Amino acid sequence: MNKIVKNAFILTAITVIAGLLLGVVYGVTKEPIANAKAKAKQEAFQAVLSDADSFETVDNLDTDAASEILKSNGYSSDDIEEVALGKDKSGETIGYVINVVSHEGYGGDIEISVGIQADGTVKGIEMLSISETAGLGMKSTEPTFKDQFKDKNVETFSYTKTGEEGDDKIDAISGATITTNAVTNAVDAALVYFQNELGGGSNE
After folding, report:
1. Sign of CA dihedral 151, 152, 157, 158
2. 64, containing H or E segment
3. From CA 52, how far away is CA 144, in angstroms rounded?
4. pLDDT tens-digit readout, 32-74
5. Which of 87, 89, 70, 86 shows the shortest CA–CA distance to 78?
């Protein structure tokens, strides 16, 4: 009995010490990780809306209302996570960065930053979080795929497997139709939100 109690005490002590060490590690690394994520996000914002001099996050974003807008337009598998105003040096809003999470990815959720100029032109897209298949879905992170959306002013995009031409046409990634669909729908969700909530291309 004494041996059992002793072993239980040792295991409990090890568990407590391990928990304390994990707590210390978390406390030490929490701020650097948060800073790294914030830096990566700002870099993504600049990449998708390069004409902006600064970015101002919309603090009172109504995600429930955004979800309703998307659902009513057929995008029930996407969520608007964050919206930032892109401003020029004089403080005027020249566009928006809309962060969308797609739940349609092959390897899990895909989080994308979409830069949209005030007139509705998509200025670029950037992956914030993605875990698709290497050599297939991960090709969506390459400029060859991402740049298909760049500098296009269309209502929505659709992907093609046949090389069909048009500003609204995106060439599907061979062997990664699911990823192509997820990314295309996420960009479209950002456009739909912009059109219904952020001015829809109006410069007023």
Report:
1. negative
2. helix 63-72
3. 24
4. 776 777 777 888 899 999 999 999 999 999 999 999 999 999 9
5. 70
Say whether pLDDT at 202 is over 70.
Answer: no
Query: What is the C-alpha separation between 53 and 45, in angstroms, rounded?
Result: 10
Over the stretch 122-181, which tens digit does the pLDDT of each residue have?
Answer: 999 999 999 999 999 999 999 999 999 999 999 999 999 998 999 999 999 999 999 999
pLDDT in tens, 68-88: 999 999 999 999 999 999 999
Name residue, tokens 């912009």: 194
Cβ neighbours around 141 below 10 Å, total: 14
DSSP conformation class of 120: S
The structure tokens listed for 54 are 């600064």
- State the number of CA atoms in the 13 A half-sphere of 202 facing the CB: 7
Residue with tokens 């109504």: 62
| Residues, the chain | 204
